[in-house]
Automatic annotation (TrEMBL):
<keyword id="KW-0812">Transmembrane</keyword>
<comment type="similarity">
    <text>Belongs to the GerABKA family.</text>
</comment>
<dbReference type="GO" id="GO:0009847">
    <property type="term" value="P:spore germination"/>
</dbReference>
<feature type="transmembrane region" description="Helical">
    <location>
        <begin position="284"/>
        <end position="306"/>
    </location>
</feature>
<dbReference type="InterPro" id="IPR004995">
    <property type="entry name" value="Spore_Ger"/>
</dbReference>
<keyword id="KW-1133">Transmembrane helix</keyword>
<feature type="transmembrane region" description="Helical">
    <location>
        <begin position="356"/>
        <end position="374"/>
    </location>
</feature>
<dbReference type="GO" id="GO:0005886">
    <property type="term" value="C:plasma membrane"/>
</dbReference>
<feature type="transmembrane region" description="Helical">
    <location>
        <begin position="380"/>
        <end position="399"/>
    </location>
</feature>
<feature type="region of interest" description="Disordered">
    <location>
        <begin position="471"/>
        <end position="496"/>
    </location>
</feature>
<dbReference type="InterPro" id="IPR050768">
    <property type="entry name" value="UPF0353/GerABKA_families"/>
</dbReference>
<keyword id="KW-0472">Membrane</keyword>
<feature type="transmembrane region" description="Helical">
    <location>
        <begin position="411"/>
        <end position="435"/>
    </location>
</feature>
<protein>
    <submittedName>
        <fullName>GerA spore germination protein</fullName>
    </submittedName>
</protein>
<dbReference type="Pfam" id="PF03323">
    <property type="entry name" value="GerA"/>
</dbReference>
<feature type="compositionally biased region" description="Basic and acidic residues">
    <location>
        <begin position="484"/>
        <end position="496"/>
    </location>
</feature>
Length: 496
């Protein structure tokens, strides 16, 4: 048997024969070779752990034992299973068997083989969202089954224009990846860009949608996520209706939507389920919380190190008394507390749920109190760091919360080196980076840059639904009009 000399040396070449393939698969204990001894003589090859026992016993074996067949075509027409095929290509046979197909070889047939799909679908039930939880609204979340996830979206979009294109990505895993969009609304350039980038992926394994998200990003070195990751079918549906493209990966309970903007990472599902004034206020609170989380501790370091005159006279005695016995400069005590917060976060995330909650609450109280009592940090800074950590938890999308945790440290470094000037320099750097950043070729900072007043109706605030008559300009949809604005605002009499 010939084998490739480069790359995956254990992978057989196209010249492999059926006997050599069977001998190779027999090395696995769960590979079965079942010999037919009834009216039809032949052999069945399959993986016991990949095949559904009910389909194998009730549909395949029962049909083979109750009838006498002379050819594979007769078997194919009798077995009540969809998707059967007859082929002699060894690579196709290998791939199909590894996906849960049963290979049937008749005694008189040496070349062609009948492949009968009988995969065992072992999946969990549809549950509630764990990351993007909402107080009101749907309580369904994606699971690890691609077919189930597509079903959750399709039942919300019962129209023939809803299109699903599937491909396999990953040299070894051959993971099923689906591209979802609404034909006639989604921009063809966006769809073709996504499909082309998926086709160009050269990697051996794709185990989750996060792999795809990193490989499709316009700038893979940026700390900012450029593709939205969500576990909610209703969020995916809303993105598709706006003209965006969704990506689903078999084995992943998350879907990706693109192109996206930075504003979407601070938009929660509850924003569309609450009255628009309430939703707008909460969205502004989230945006303020992000700025506070990033800038609060750097401002503390900058003011205490370089700009003492900015401290109010009434607050100055409190700060002096709290720092009287602290042996470290502000930057050291800030880094100590920030690292303690990050350690508690990681410990709480990696431990089981109940233990993690205990570690987070008790550990924070104990470490914070001990640090103040030991004179390692001031109680004023402890309050600032605690509120800053709470503010970072307000982001509804987990991806952007990691970014917020990361970019806080460059601001701290700039504050220690040049004070407020250093903070301004780091801010200018990140703003410039965001201006250049794109998502599938579309501006990531839209609608603020480039300025698109129409899209501001659902950006930093959310206006009422009857004011959002057009789809976002960022997606460049083929059909920008959502509904007739005159009919939406029309008030008919009850007798009409």
């Amino acid at each position: 048997m010939k084998k490739k000399k480069k790359g995956n040396e254990d992978l057989p070449t196209q010249s492999q024969s059926l006997k050599e393939l069977v001998d190779q698969l027999k090395q696995s204990k769960d590979f079965k070779e079942y010999e037919l001894k009834g009216k039809t003589k032949g052999v069945l090859y399959y993986f016991e752990t990949l095949v559904d026992p009910k389909t194998l016993n009730k549909l395949i074996l029962q049909s083979l034992k109750s009838h006498s067949f002379r050819s594979l075509e007769d078997i194919e027409g009798t077995i009540p299973v969809e998707g059967t095929s007859i082929t002699g290509d060894i690579s196709t046979i290998r791939d199909k068997v590894m996906l849960g197909n049963v290979a049937i070889v008749l005694e008189d047939s040496d070349k062609d083989i009948l492949l009968v799909p009988a995969p065992s679908e072992e999946t969990r039930k549809v549950g509630i969202p764990e990351i993007e939880f909402s107080v009101v609204g749907p309580k369904e979340a994606f699971i690890e089954s691609l077919d189930t996830n597509i079903n959750l979206v399709r039942k919300r979009l019962p129209l023939p224009q809803f299109t699903v294109k599937e491909m396999k990505v990953g040299k070894i895993t051959k993971t099923r990846v689906a591209v979802l969009y609404i034909d006639g609304i989604a921009n063809e350039e966006n769809v073709n860009t996504v499909i082309q980038r998926l086709s160009d992926i050269e990697f051996d394994q794709i185990n989750d949608s996060s792999y795809i998200s990193q490989m499709l990003a316009d700038n893979s070195h940026s700390p900012f996520p450029q593709i939205l990751d969500t576990e909610r079918p209703d969020r995916v549906t809303g993105s598709l209706v706006e003209g965006k493209v969704a990506i689903m990966v078999d084995g992943s309970p998350h879907a990706l939507t693109c192109p996206t903007t930075i504003v979407e990472f601070f938009s929660a599902t509850d924003d569309y389920l609450s009255p628009w004034p309430v939703a707008s206020i909460f969205r502004l609170i989230r945006l303020f919380a992000v700025f506070f989380s990033v800038l609060s501790t750097p401002l503390y370091v900058a003011i205490l190190t370089y700009h003492h005159e900015m401290i109010p006279d009434d607050l100055l005695p409190t700060i002096i008394s709290s720092r009287a016995d602290i042996p470290f400069p502000p930057i050291i005590e800030v880094i100590l507390l920030e690292l303690a917060i990050e350690l508690l976060r990681e410990a709480g995330a990696r431990l089981p749920t109940k233990v993690g909650q205990t570690i987070g609450i008790v550990g924070g109280i104990v470490i914070g109190t001990a640090a103040v009592d030991a004179g390692l940090t001031s109680n004023v800074l402890l309050i600032v760091v605690a509120i800053s950590a709470l503010a970072s938890f307000t982001t509804p999308i987990y991806q952007i919360s990691n970014t917020i945790r990361l970019i806080r440290f460059p601001f701290l470094l700039g504050a220690q080196m040049w004070g407020l000037v250093g903070i301004s320099m780091v801010m200018v750097f990140f703003i410039g980076h965001l201006i250049k950043l794109t998502s599938i070729g579309r501006p990531f900072l839209a609608p603020l840059y480039p300025l698109r007043l129409r899209d501001l109706k659902d950006a930093y605030i959310r206006l009422s639904f009857n004011r959002q008559t057009k789809r976002p300009m960022q997606t460049r949809t083929n059909d920008p009009l959502r509904f007739n604005s005159e009919r939406a605002t029309e008030r008919r009499d009850i007798d009409e």
